[in-house]
Amino acid sequence: MAVSRHKTRHRGPVITMLWNTALEVKTRVAVGSGARTKLSGILAQISAGKKVLVLCQPTTAVQWLREILAAIPSDDYHVSTLEVPDGETCKSTEWLVRIWEHLQERHFDRRDTIVALGGGSVTDLAGFAASTYMRGMNLVIIPTSLLAQVDAAIGGKTGINLPAGKNLAGTFFFPRAVLADPELLSSLPKKQFVSGMAEIIKYALIEETVAKHTDYEVGQKKLFDVLNTFVNSGFDYEDPVCAGLITSSIKMKLFVVGKDPHEGGLRRMLNFGHTLGHALEKVADYRLTHGEAVAIGMAAVTRLSVTLKKLPKAEGEKVIKLLENAGLPTELPPNLDRQKLIESMAHDKKREGASIKLVLPVTRLGMVDYEFSLPIEEVDKLI
Ligand SMILES: NC(=O)c1ccc[n+]([C@@H]2O[C@H](COP(=O)([O-])OP(=O)(O)OC[C@H]3O[C@@H](n4cnc5c(N)ncnc54)[C@H](O)[C@@H]3O)[C@@H](O)[C@H]2O)c1
């Protein structure tokens, strides 16, 4: 801790001090086939305590838990497991309390570790629990869905849902390590793989703006073009391009979050499609996957941008086509209560006064305006 120079007089008037900390966050991120086998090495590197809680969901318990448990040396660690319900159901205060109680009953302390083995629901919940138990303990994430590998596990946002909305309680908390292994996707249902594709498409649509503001560099081919080829060749996790797409997405997110960890500005661009997406998830009672909802949101802001003449029509059409070819929806589901949707967007975290902040694709694919404000009374233009 460092306070700017100030002569102490041991008196009590009101003074102001500029307080800086030496807080530094370091997360080890391993991406690629076999990354999951690094777990025991990572536990040693972070000097983890003797206790490990592996949080999983029913699907990952069946598919991967045994292998992950076998990778943790039983002579060195006492390992317990907790299986939480599938999907959004686990992102609740009820499950948060259950985790806290599990940790407390087994006398976990701050050096002990939660290992999150699952999709974004588990990684969000595990992150929240790890950040709040004893004001923060070790967290290692092994994301098992494509969406969690490219997005939810990266960047330190944690959260649970409240009855009034998604992710309404959460923290910024960075894991000690993330092990993103495409082989874990071998058991992922196609619908969930497609859901993750939505977030990769998002990265393709912000790539140039990320490169402009951070040290990220666009490769020989734009992510959008690589994605187009991947999608048109019937995409799956075994295609070596898949691992590359995951790595590029993670890099982009790390560069953005590294510059703006607490979403002061730049990080907002990662919310492309998410304002409508989050509202849709809630109003549709989570029948849409996160990626499906975000895809509809991205299509909506793209159409808005074309209408406002900020994006050429032909560029807008390419976005819609890529989403459709990837098997993602681009229109609102029929019979959805539009009024509820508008109300939900009006209560979004990204609301600022009388408008909501949107990320708009502008000029050409890869570029976005992440400061665009839409007055609340015009929100219906989006749908
Ligand atoms: N914190 C963040 O920055 C951030 C970013 C994006 C999304 N999210 C959150 O992530 C969640 C969505 O993530 P998700 O789509 O991964 O959800 P999820 O965890 O619900 O997983 C989706 C489904 O895939 C199954 N699954 C996961 N991995 C599997 C595997 N390897 N094999 C078989 N089945 C598997 C799960 O059981 C579940 O049924 C949302 O709650 C969203 O809010 C958070």
Can you describe this structure?
By secondary structure, this protein is an alpha/beta fold. It folds into two domains: 160 residues, 3-Layer(aba) Sandwich (Rossmann fold); 182 residues, Dehydroquinate synthase-like, alpha domain. Helices cover 41% and strands 16% of the residues. It has a six-stranded parallel beta sheet with strand order 3-10-7-6-4-5, sandwiched between helices. Strands 11-12-13 form a three-stranded antiparallel beta sheet. It has a two-stranded antiparallel ribbon with strand order 1-2. Strand 11 and strand 12 form a beta hairpin. Helix 9 packs across helix 10. The longest helix is centred in the middle third of the chain and has 24 residues. The protein is globular, with a radius of gyration of 21 Å. The chain starts with a strand and ends in an 8-residue tail after the last strand. The mean pLDDT is 93. The protein binds nicotinamide-adenine-dinucleotide. Nicotinamide-adenine-dinucleotide binds next to helix 2, helix 4, helix 5 and helix 6.
Helix amount: 40-55%
Going by CATH, what is the homologous superfamily of the largest domain? Dehydroquinate synthase-like - alpha domain
CATH level-1 class of the largest domain: Mainly Alpha
Mean pLDDT: 93
> How many individual domains?
2
CATH topology (fold) name of the largest domain:
Dehydroquinate synthase-like, alpha domain
Shape: globular
Distance between the termini: 49 Å
**Structural class by SSE content:** alpha/beta
- Bound small molecules, deduplicated: nicotinamide-adenine-dinucleotide
CA radius of gyration is 21 Å
Order of helices and strands: EEEHEHEHEHEHEEEHHHHHHHEEE
Task: Using the 3D structure, state the CATH architecture of the largest domain.
Answer: Up-down Bundle
Strand content: 15-25%
Number of β-strand runs: 13
Strand order of the largest sheet: 3-10-7-6-4-5
Query: Regions with pLDDT < 50 over 5+ consecutive residues?
Result: none
